[in-house]
Amino acid sequence: MIDLETAQPAPEPRLGSRNDIVRSHFSVRDLLSEATVALTARPARTLLTALGTILGVAALVATLGLAKTAGNQVVSRFNELEATRVLVEPQDRQQGRNNRQVSVIPFDAGDRLRRLNGVAAAGTKSEVGVDGLVRSVPVVDPLGQNEFQIPVLSVSPGIFDAVRATIETGRVFDDGHNERGDNVVVLGPGAARRLNITRVDNSPAIFIGDDSFAVIGILRDVEREPDMLNAIMVVDGYARERLSLFAPAEVHIEVEIGAADLIGTQAALALAPDSPDQLKVGLPSSPRGVRSGVQGDLNSLFLILGGVSLLVGAIGIANVTLVSVLERTGEIGLRRALGATRRHIAAQFLFESGALGALAGLIGTSVGILTVVAVSATKSWTPVLDSWLPFGAPILGAIIGLIAGTYPAWKASATEPISALRSGT
Amino acid sequence: MTASIADSGPPPPSNSTADIVVELDEVSREFPGNPPVRALDGASLAIQRGDYVAIIGPSGSGKSTLLHLLGLLDEPTHGVYRLDGIDTRDLTESDRAGLRSSRIGFVFQSFHLLGHRTTVENVMLAEVYRPGTRSTRRKRAEDALRQVGLGHRLDAYPTTLSGGERQRVAVARALVGEPSLLLADEPTGNLDSVTSAQILDLFDDLHHSGLTLAVITHDEDVSERAERKVRINDGTLTEVFR
Ligand SMILES: Nc1ncnc2c1ncn2[C@@H]1O[C@H](COP(=O)(O)OP(=O)(O)OP(=O)(O)O)[C@@H](O)[C@H]1O
Ligand SMILES: [Mg+2]
User: Fold this and answer.
1) Ligand 1, atom 12: nearest CA belongs to which residue?
2) Which domains does chain B have, with CATH numbers?
3) ipTM of the prediction
């Protein structure tokens, strides 16, 4: 048997005051190893405790990943429409003296552009102001019930292909209409409904103010420029002479796939060789808006699902940690007797639940990513994942663990050592 | 032949107590209630360094209450308790935790070993809250286990140990880091007479090597092995002289 007094160096001075007290201390490394021992002592139980959070994080990662991946598919469908579209407008839409737009776009813009390699269709479109209302019968009804305020657009014949319009009935303008400045109109489907015109084989006429027009066609749909759906289209040649349209407001170009950038650099020069910098060429942004809207809907639905599973997971961790605090009452009493302060006890349980949450987050992230990859494989999609997700999700798990462990940790630290020791181990 | 300690004159002043580990001066502990329970009533006691004191008394007499006070797990409602000359009245909770960690070793009736840790890990737990001990902790724990005769069971789990062996692990845990005072509450309460004797032999050895021991028991055999005997009855302490 080793003699205590001689085997060890002389003990430090035992007597004195408070200043001689060596405060107890719980180092981070000890905290880590204690938590590791506690979590690995019963691995099956640890895994089951973490299961809710694992599923929650997995659901979150999988849904975010799938939303992103699916959103990407939606995007590529929009992209085809967007990538073949070029719009030319006057720079900054400067207003002239008569409050009229100064535009250097020529009326033969469509013809000039069609000569460029890569342009599939091109046409001009302008809003025009008309005096008076629109009606489909010659007689003015004193009650005004068959007179309507309908927007009137002046277009060139090429516009219909450029905006991917389809025809319900009749036909659209040809170059002859444009050159002669004929009194002819094409109706958007909305305008046709309001004017109660469904067919053109009986040569219907409409009246804009006092002028009468022959309706030669009704559109079915317009993929781009939805304002044409509810408008009456007159031909540029007419608007130029009779509605004093000074210059077209916009040029719409349908380009071959991949030609947008090339046409973008050439269009301004082709339209205004003297002052190309007065024209603005660009891709419209509206499809992007549609895209983010679609993604937003998907994401919020998926996020709610993931959030609910995480809440369930957090309750699971809180519940089991609380049970384990009760089970380990004897251990808590022992640790207090060995010199742990309340704070050390709280830190231990909080760290354990935080580590458990982080572990769950890590496993859940892996499961979630595997799910995204698997689903993408079956749908032959390209899996897409935000780069912060693999790092953010375990941190989210740790935060959930910490929140879930707060009450149990407080409960553990409030345990009185005497009654805890009485409870046995 | 008993004499009250309180009758043997006032306790010595604290500045001349160089070798006194425990000094209780008219200490009372009252539990609130209707009527309040006075588990300890004006107890005075001095334990010199190297003393081996047995505290005996019937059930409900206040033995555990006294041990909790001595172990700084509880505070007196009246009186002064000095440990190693330090007045424990004006200590913070963290000071008291520090004193428990560095100067007191506990041995409990029910051992209080953690089932998922080996014996050496259980002993190492004693130093988790002691600063600067980490790197040499395992070696000291192994030394302590050899000292209690368990050098061959370092990596055994408590469930595979006999009751006597478990209690020896608990003693090793209390010894590691050389406490000023080893407190044991019914250390043989869960053991048969043979293994009890082993523990008592161990206590004798520790006593001879200079350790200060206070052992609470209601077992006369246990108290006979001690150098001093203090009887507690209804919260009142009396030294038993033989
Ligand atoms: N927390 C408490 N609240 C109220 N009364 C208490 C409390 N703790 C102890 N007591 C009372 O104080 C008295 C002394 O109790 P204590 O536990 O010290 O006895 P003991 O001598 O250790 O008994 P045993 O040998 O049965 O363990 C008993 O009457 C007990 O009921
Ligand atoms: Mg008791």
Assistant:
1) B39
2) 17-240 (3.40.50.300)
3) 0.91
